[in-house]
Design brief:
seven-stranded mixed β-sheet; Rossmann fold; 24 helices; AMP binding; 17% strand; single chain; alpha/beta; disordered C terminus; four-stranded mixed β-sheet
Length: 729
């Protein structure tokens, strides 16, 4: 491993420097300047098996290869009614297999950190048999190459196939992806990660002193951090020891909270159906005979326990872990109640049942919306709640285009682009009476809106109308989903990663189209409204020479300098150039104007072509990043909504809350996911341009110009972390 080179290199420098000075190869002054060796590392591994970072360079690209293979295989598996077993890399770490399974709805996954139960052969066959009996025509099973059972024995794709064929007789095929996962064009995420980490490593080396310990440039959320190299190595080795000792739970936890929650979320979302409440109802009903004792144990104020009181009261028995609502108590008929169940996803008890949750889209479609809805629906139903899907945004809500969603209804949604619920840009301000009536009709206790800037604006309008409409005094959450990434309060929106990959791939193809043409410049227009996120990051990931955006003003002088700079690069041997422009960068310096300027000023030096990408940027299959982010954000939203509904539930079962903290936007900012009140975000918004006042990615603009050989100054973004912290997901 790379860490083993640290003492060797340091010792080599200590012995070489004096000898070189003695032989006159270097001066005494040079010897004094080079008495120590500073080391900064960056981790490149598709396995993502290094503790101390959320993602290693190469992991996202490998996941792209796996998901592309799974999506392609799913088509042939469906047509032939087959079971496919895919072996993916991961000799000592199951990250690739786990995330691929989570984002492809695989039926079963085998990873080294979490071996299957002793009777896994029976369980997998039982699940596959049930799925076939329910009409499912294909089955996907992922096996990490290092997968093992509870005894530490290897589980191979061949072994899994033998079990399925022998016990079920299913037509089963094996695909070993092998080194396909290491090849191909790097994803936009990996390109950006490499650029950011590389620049941060240079700054870390320049700032290092003789007392600076070796560090690793890591990614924590969306924040570059510097963590001690040896601490990361020791923790990585500790994971291996935990697996050797068969301490599986510890191994999973030491991989980080993100890994552990990915595992638990996968287990819950891939159930064939929600857990049955009959057993819990029966068990709890059997306890009701001792109701007086349970009632007397309450910490709440005591009331007399008689039938008259029970007929009128709503009793919440927290210590009995249930909620009993009795409008007509007449034994032996069981009362209506909602028992608690141990929630393995969040590692604590949660009250199940009794709540009606709504989910809808507002704004333009974006990849990842369907993954978020699937996760929201199944997380809510798992807790015992009812979920209403609101079709076609505000228009559908007003018209009553609302339906209760089921567990099986969202099967297969995670890998689909667009928005199956339908979405429109209509805002609610003109329909508040009708919306309040619908909330009242369906007894909505909480609502989730997945969408872009319009979704954020809509939630703000509902919040500001709370004084007139008590129906809006419920917990409300927005998950940002827009390719423009122009919603304040979050570094990323669902869909922006997929769009970036589409743009980068198209730019690669455009450049390749001029392979036999010398000295050609391409001017490409991207979407994004007034937000230059797509143009800037696509430019950085695609190696653009310039990217023009609204947030960074430019004039004819800057354009002329860029043309001269392009001509100088062509004279040095560069054959192709790439210039990106955000669609609303400048109302006068249009894409056509820039194309004509480069064409005219570059005559005799280079030729120029123009491309407007248009709605191609909104299409395609969701990237792994968007699928995973949508799944996790929706799960977090359900958890928050449940806590708020329990907190503000009244005696009659309704929910009422008018605090600003109950109308929020869920977003990732630097190292943490935060629920931020939309009332506060209102002050951080440029409403005329529909962009945040502060945009984190603007600090990457100098890096784009430096890599394009312009003069610019890049400032560090990394922070020092003395201890190896778990990645906050």
């Amino acid at each position: 491993m790379a860490h083993s080179l640290v003492p060797i290199l340091q010792a080599r420098l200590a012995s070489t420097s004096p000898a070189a000075a003695q032989e006159g190869e270097i001066t005494e002054e040079e010897k004094a300047k080079n008495t120590h060796l500073n080391i900064v590392g960056m981790v490149g591994s598709i396995d993502n098996d290094f503790c101390g970072t959320d993602m290693t360079i190469g992991t996202d690209s490998a996941l792209h290869r796996i998901i592309e293979a799974v999506d392609a295989i799913a088509s042939t598996a469906y047509s032939h009614q087959r079971c496919f077993i895919l072996e993916v890399m991961g000799r000592h770490c199951g990250y690739l297999a786990l995330v691929a399974a989570l984002t492809s709805e695989a039926d079963y996954v085998f990873i080294p950190e979490n071996p299957p139960p002793e009777n896994w052969q029976e369980k997998i066959c039982s699940k596959l048999q049930q799925e076939r009996s329910m009409g499912q025509r294909l089955n996907i099973i992922l096996v990490a190459e290092g997968a093992i059972d509870q005894q530490g024995e290897a589980i191979t794709a061949e072994g899994v196939k033998k079990v399925i064929v022998d016990q079920l007789g299913f037509d089963t095929r094996i695909t070993v992806l092998g080194h396909v996962q290491r090849g191909g064009s790097p994803s936009a995420f990996d390109r950006l990660l490499g650029c950011r980490m590389g620049a941060e490593a240079v700054l870390a080396l320049m700032e290092a002193t003789s007392d600076t310990e070796p560090c690793v440039i890591s990614l924590d959320g969306n924040q570059a951090v510097r963590v001690p190299l040896m601490a990361c190595v020791l923790k990585t080795q500790a994971v291996a020891r935990a697996m050797q000792d068969r301490n599986w739970e510890q191994a999973v936890q030491m991989r980080g909270r993100s890994f552990a929650r990915n595992l638990e979320t996968y287990k819950m979302l891939t159930r064939l159906r929600p857990p049955s409440l009959w057993k819990e109802r029966r068990d709890l009903y059997g306890v009701l005979g001792d109701m007086p004792n349970l009632f007397n144990s309450l910490e709440a104020p005591k009331k007399s326990f008689d039938s008259e009181w029970l007929c009128a009261a709503h009793v919440s028995i927290l210590h009995a872990k249930c909620t009993i609502t009795s409008a007509d108590w007449s034994l032996p008929h069981p009362p209506s109640f909602s028992p608690r169940q141990q929630n393995t996803i969040w590692d604590r008890d949660e009250l199940l049942g009794g709540f009606n949750l709504g989910v809808m889209h507002i704004g333009a479609p974006a990849c990842g919306m369907n993954a978020a809805v699937r996760s929201f629906v199944r997380n809510s139903i798992y807790r015992g709640d009812t979920v209403y899907g609101i079709h076609d945004g505000v228009d559908g809500l007003v018209e009553g285009n609302i339906q209760e969603m089921t567990w099986s209804e969202v099967t297969g949604w995670v890998g689909q682009g667009g928005a199956f619920l339908g979405t429109k840009r209509t805002l609610p301000d003109k329909y508040l009476d009708q919306i309040a009536a619908r909330f009242r009709e369906y007894k909505i206790h909480s609502i989730l809106i997945v969408g872009g800037f319009e979704a954020y604006h809509a939630l703000l309008q509902l919040y500001e109308a709370r004084g007139k409409y008590p129906e809006f005094c419920i917990p409300m959450v927005v998950i940002p989903a827009t390719i423009s990434n122009n919603v304040p309060g979050s570094d990323f929106s669902l869909g922006c990663d997929t769009s970036l990959n589409e743009i980068v791939e198209i730019c690669d193809r455009i450049r390749q189209s001029a392979q036999g043409t010398k000295r050609r410049v391409f001017v490409v227009e991207t979407m994004g409204g007034y937000c230059g996120y797509l143009a800037t990051l696509a430019g950085l990931a695609g190696g653009a020479d310039a990217a023009y955006i609204y947030e960074e003003s430019f004039g004819i002088q800057e354009l002329q300098l860029d043309v001269y700079h392009m001509a100088a690069k062509m004279a040095e041997g560069v054959q192709r150039g790439l210039v990106l422009r955000n669609e609303n960068a400048n109302e006068n310096y249009t894409t056509d104007f820039i194309f004509r300027l480069y064409s005219e000023e570059g005559k005799g030096i280079f030729s120029c072509r123009k491309n407007v990408l248009g709605h191609m940027q909104q299409g395609g299959s969701p990237s792994v990043f968007d699928r995973n982010m949508g799944t996790k954000m929706a799960a977090k939203a359900v958890n928050w909504m449940t806590e708020e509904m329990l907190k503000y539930r009244r005696q009659d079962g309704s929910v009422f809350c008018d605090e600003a903290s109950t109308a929020v936007l869920l977003g990732l900012q630097k190292r943490v996911y935060q629920f931020q009140p939309v009332a506060e975000l209102k002050r951080q918004t440029d409403w005329d341009r529909r962009i945040p006042l502060n945009e984190w990615w603007l600090k990457l603009r100098p890096l784009l110009r430096i890599l394009a050989k312009h003069d610019a100054a890049y400032h560090e973004e990394g922070i020092n972390v003395k201890e190896v912290e778990e990645a906050l997901d």
